[in-house]
Amino acid sequence: MRTLTIGLLGCGTVGRGFVELLDAERSRIRARYGLELHVTRILVRDLSRERAGVAAELLTTAPLDVVDGDCDVVVELIGGTHTAGTLVRRAIASGRHVVTANKALLAAAGAELFDDAVRRGVEIGFEASVCGGVPVIGALRRGFSGDSIESIRGVLNGTSNYVLCRMDEGLSLADAVSCAQELGFAEADPTLDLSGEDAAQKLAILAQLAFGEGVRRASVSGIASLRTADLRRARRNGEVIRLVAEARRVPGGVELEVGPRRLPAGDPLATVRDEQNAVIIRGRAIGEVTLSGRGAGSLPTAAAVMSDVIAIGISSRAGARLVA
Amino acid sequence: MRTLTIGLLGCGTVGRGFVELLDAERSRIRARYGLELHVTRILVRDLSRERAGVAAELLTTAPLDVVDGDCDVVVELIGGTHTAGTLVRRAIASGRHVVTANKALLAAAGAELFDDAVRRGVEIGFEASVCGGVPVIGALRRGFSGDSIESIRGVLNGTSNYVLCRMDEGLSLADAVSCAQELGFAEADPTLDLSGEDAAQKLAILAQLAFGEGVRRASVSGIASLRTADLRRARRNGEVIRLVAEARRVPGGVELEVGPRRLPAGDPLATVRDEQNAVIIRGRAIGEVTLSGRGAGSLPTAAAVMSDVIAIGISSRAGARLVA
Fold first, then answer.
1. Residue B55: which residues within 8 A CB-CB, separation 6 or more?
2. Which residues of B are catalytic?
């Protein structure tokens, strides 16, 4: 049995989900992978807040208690680029592995962080940064490693898709957004989702993995200016409007585009329901592979984080890779 | 740059696809993974047969020239359980990694081979054994490692699905099978596909990965006794018939079932077209994730083999895991 110690940065929705999931899965992970996962410190903003299921003595408001403390892996779930970036860089520099769900940080500084990690011989897991529990990062990193990828096309923002599905049923954009907020699918400020920026960040991460160099953002637009009548008009033509993120090879590189698109009802992306995500990866040899599922939420995202933590735990031992 | 030497057992459809794909992807694999993949010997049955693109001096009819020869990885593509099993055991015993597309061998002797491999500190890659280029093995081994899997449900046999789609259009079973044979989707003897046995073998591999112990086969039936009128009747009720493979937890273990099922037209498996495959994995935390794509064919299967070879090449070097 090997113990892997974990420093947790952030105890919001995903952080609490991670602690809850670890409690539920601890004995299975022990039996299956021979791994004892142990959270040693948890960074929070406010010590006084009630957090059911989280051991109060692990909490700290001092980031360096976590990052410089006793941990093999730093799990970064605070989001944003500034503080998160500083802490992730410090963790890597001191030889700690990093698992992050932070798409903004990776979209902004991924290449630099990955270079740092290679130099320090540590790993960065980021399955949770795109499409929650849908293992699209793993598919690109490993499943498609033997093939040249030609294009990636997907519905990467669950909030927008939920809003479009409600508008398709007749709600106004404002009412659909309220509805999404009530159900927890949209932030108080939904700008990042509705503008297409969240989908563009996720697409940038996927494209970086799939194509490496030469990726360039062509255009990003969202659904904020759509009206219910636009969806009704599309519907009359047998079409559905979806916020589509697409990366494809063009002469001299790869272009990224995000925007609302009218799709024939038979398009695989037209059938993506509510807050679901779907990604279609087209490889030269493999053809099209579609992955779909819940792209967000506390437990799905926490499970993606957990899968990266386990992979790091396994890969640091000899001969045990097989059973993973 | 690290060189990984490969001994290839078999040069049929997938074997030739592997050689072709390696030629096409060699420079990308070199640049991206720092890996030089080098096929050292190829086992064939008949030296005199014409094989475009395959270097004749690599061919041999003596299995031990390959398995005992200069290779880090043995890629087993001959199929069947007897000879393939003997050669795979010998490769593992001599410390070679193994990559195989052989679902019959894994369904029959997987647990024993995996134990051998762990003892010898080598890896067995088998992404190609289920659903060709659709990375479902990777999803179960890694993406879902943090979650408890509750069920697996899928269309795992492309031949049967192709036949059902043609029968749905009015063809008889016999004509639909001929059609599949002409297009290369069905073997001269399609029994293994039509009986549900091929799907059952694949399901057994997935269930072993997902659930480990306690997996038991409840019932396996195929589509050989279906008639076009059955599909017509289902269609009139808004239903579609698919050959569904399902593994789910029951008291005391996990039960596997394969058989033709009537599905509502909105079921994700009802929309699986022609020779496509689809797998729906349900995790307790993650919910349902669907993976779909071409489940067979020379190049998709070869690409799955290649992804395992690359993973082995990468994991035997320190610090380079990240860029994969």
1. none
2. 202
pLDDT of residue B321: 30
Q: CB atoms < 10 A from the CB of A47, how many?
A: 10
Question: Are the beta carbons of B286 and A305 separated by less than 8 Å?
Answer: no
Model confidence band, residue A296 (pLDDT cutoffs 50, 70, 90): confident
Above pLDDT 70, what percent of chain A? 97
Q: Token pair 């990240």 is at which residue?
A: B322
Model confidence over A222-237: pLDDT tens digits? Answer: 999 999 999 999 999 9
Residues 280-309 of A with CB under 8 A from B: 283-294, 297, 299-300, 302-307, 309
Give A27's contacts (C-beta < 8 A, 6+ positions apart). none
Q: Which residues of B touch A131 (CB under 8 A)?
A: none
Residue B214 in contact with partner chain A when CB distance is under 8 A: no
Q: Centre a 10 Å sphere on the Cβ of residue B82 and count the other Cβ atoms it contains.
A: 9
Residues of A in contact with B320 (CB under 8 A): 118
Is the pLDDT at B185 greater than 90? The verdict is no
Please write the tens of the pLDDT for every residue from A66-79.
Answer: 999 999 999 999 99
Helix (H, G, I), strand (E, B) or coil at A5: strand
Which of A40, A44, A37, A38 shows the shortest CA–CA distance to A16? A44
Tokens of A13: 């929705």
Contact state of A320 with B118 under an 8 Å Cβ cutoff = yes
pLDDT-based confidence at B214, cuts 50/70/90?
confident
Measure CB to CB from residue B289 to each of A28, A134, A285 and give the nearest one: A134
Please report which helix (H) or strand (E) contains residue A136, including its range. Answer: helix A136-138
Strand partners, B297: none
Cβ contact B311–A286 (<8 Å): no
The shares of helix, strand and coil residues in chain A, as percent rounded to the nearest 5, are 45, 25, 30
- A292 with B289: Cβ contact below 8 A: yes
Contacts with A102 (C-beta within 8 Å, 6 or more apart), sequence order: A76, A77, A78, A79, A80, A81, A84, A88, A126, A129
Among the options A16, A41, A153, A202, which is catalytic? A202
Using a CB–CB cutoff of 8 Å, tell me whether B128 touches chain A.
no
CA dist B135 and B209 (Å) reads 13
Chain A nearest CA to B176, separation (Å): 24
Higher pLDDT, B187 or A232: A232
What does pTM read for this prediction?
Answer: 0.94
Residue whose structure tokens are 């970036």:
A85
For residues B47 and B32, give the distance between their C-alpha atoms in angstroms, rounded to a whole number. Answer: 35
Nearest to B294 by CA among B56, B128, B46, B54: B128
Q: Tell me how close the Cα of A89 comes to any Cα of chain B, in angstroms.
A: 16
